Structures are given as structure tokens and as C-alpha cells.
Amino acid sequence: MSVVLCTASGDQVRFWEAPSGICSRILRFADSQVNCLEITPDKNYLAAGGNPHIRLFEINNNSNSNAILCLEGHTSNVTSLGFQRNGRYLYSGSEDGSVKIWDLRSPTFTRSFDAKGPVNSVALHPNQAQIISGDQSGSVKIFDLGSSKVISEIVPESYSSTQAVSIQAVDVSDDSRLLVAANNHAEVFAYNMNETIMKAPKGQQHYPLASFRAHPLGAYLLHAKISPDCRSLVSVSSDKTARLFDTTTWQLTQTLSQHKKWVKQSVFSADSSYLVTASSDRSALLWNLRTGSPVRQYSDHEASVTCVALNDRSES
Fold first, then answer.
1. H or E segment and range at residue 310
2. Tens digits of per-residue pLDDT, 102-161?
3. Cα dihedral angle (219, 220, 222, 223), rounded to 10 degrees?
4. How far is the C-alpha of 229 from the C-alpha of 173, rounded, in Å?
5. Cα separation, 57 vs 140, whole angstroms
6. Residue 265's closest CA among 2, 1, 9?
7. pLDDT for 28-64, tens place per residue?
8. Terminus of the chain with fewer CB atoms < 10 Å: N or C?
9. Dihedral (C-alpha) 82, 128, 134, 44: value to the nearest 10 degrees?
């Protein structure tokens, strides 16, 4: 399958024919709504995170709608998922305050890290040696997979609040140059990952390369992601828009504004030229970023679209 596109709405996961906008398959997630989705690099499996389980489904077997594996160990909402680049393991973050590593040959986790606060977002460093978490206590932690220790912690200083603000998203650019943290007040903080973070002594204060408000005052930022080509950052918000920023100048380059309600999540295509957004208006949109216009709508969801996953990488 050359393109795998999935959305989640309530307890339903839908597979889409990306070019036509036709829904080709619907799965049901037992016990809870789906909070996050991730597709394995080889496009064989879909991971879905709920409350509190993670389930894996076969992508290329339409006759089996049941999960082939249920991962148990979290005790609250699973909020973020990812796969190691060769698909050897899955990592997850949860509102139970933990970040976990899962060997997919077993239904139980192999490693667990205490984030000391409900986790909203996790990201794996491209060097595969560190995992980063962002939590509701306003902290960004970098865990070393070798020692299982926190090697760095950042608490971005909000300029709209005297208290720490919940971190909604963390991400590391594929070239390992940037670490981005975004809070729910729509404040974005960009750090030099190599020099400022990795080489600084533990406990040293970290100063961002850039910090800015991505959406208007009063808007809630829900998700942010760096593009695969490392040139853009996208953020999505309660203001019904997705906004793109240049990662060199941090200037706003595009505002995508066709959704009628909150935009919950977004995902880039492999070549960074397309973006899929998921919204509370019960739809997902495919955007051509060269023109800034939506080219396909994925509708007929029964409730808010909470998350989206896309894998259109070429087979290698």
C-alpha cells in the first residue's frame, strides 16, 4: 500500500483512499475513544492509543477487524505514540505520568520512565538514544535510553502566565538541530538541540533560540510538528486554523483556515508538500502547501476527529 491515511473519531478508526476521499475501512476501538494513532514504518500495522490501552491492528488484512495485540501497562489516557525508525519498538506517553517503551513481541512494556506529571507528548531523538516528553506540569524532560535517567529538563518560561503552562507538544527535527516545545497558551519555544540541550550540564538554564505566540491571545494550541524537511513548523489551535512557520526566521508563512471548529492535530506528507488536519468539525482536510488550499475532504465522521496518521513514504 503506497499511502496509508487513518483518522480517529470517538471509538472509530477510519482508513481512507487518500486521493479520492473514500473511506475504505472502519475499525472499532473497544473501551474508550482513540486519542492518538501511529503507523509502523513498513505500513503493516496501526497503533491506536486510548484509555488506558494501546492496540495494534493489521493494515493489509481487511478481513480482520480485531486488534492483534493489546499493550497493557498505562493506567490513564495514552496521549502520544511513536515507532522507532525501523519499527523495533513503540514508545508512548500517558496522563498517568509515565513514558513507556514496548517490544512488540510482548504485551507488556520493557522500560518505564517517570515524567512526574501527566504526559501530553513524546518524541524520539533521531539518534534513537534519547526520548523527550512534554507534560501538563509545564516541563520538558530528556530521558537517556541507555542510563534510564533524566539528562536534561526544561521549563519554558511563559510570558502570559506567572505559573508553568502545560506543554502540549514536543518535537525534534529530523536533522537533530531543533527541539520545539509548544504550550497550550499557543507559545512556542525553539531550542538548539545539540549545543544548548545535549552539551549543557544538568540543571543549567536553557534559553530558547526563539519564542513566539503562534495563535492569537486566548486561543489554545493543541498540537505542533516539525516538517520532515525541517523547514517548517505547523501548529493547530482552537482558533480553527493551522499555521506554518519558517524554522530559520520563525516568521508566519501560511495560515490554513477552512475548518469550522477547533483543529486538533495535523501530519505532514513525507515530502513536506502536503498536510492533513483533523478537526472538531467532524472532518479532516488534505492541504496542498504549495498553494495553501485544501484539495480533499475526509468527512462522514460521527464525532470530532481527534487524531490523524499518514505514512506515504516510498518503499525502500
1. strand 305-311
2. 998 889 999 999 999 999 999 999 999 999 999 999 999 999 999 999 999 999 999 888
3. 60
4. 8
5. 31
6. 9
7. 999 899 999 999 999 999 999 999 999 999 999 999 9
8. C
9. 0
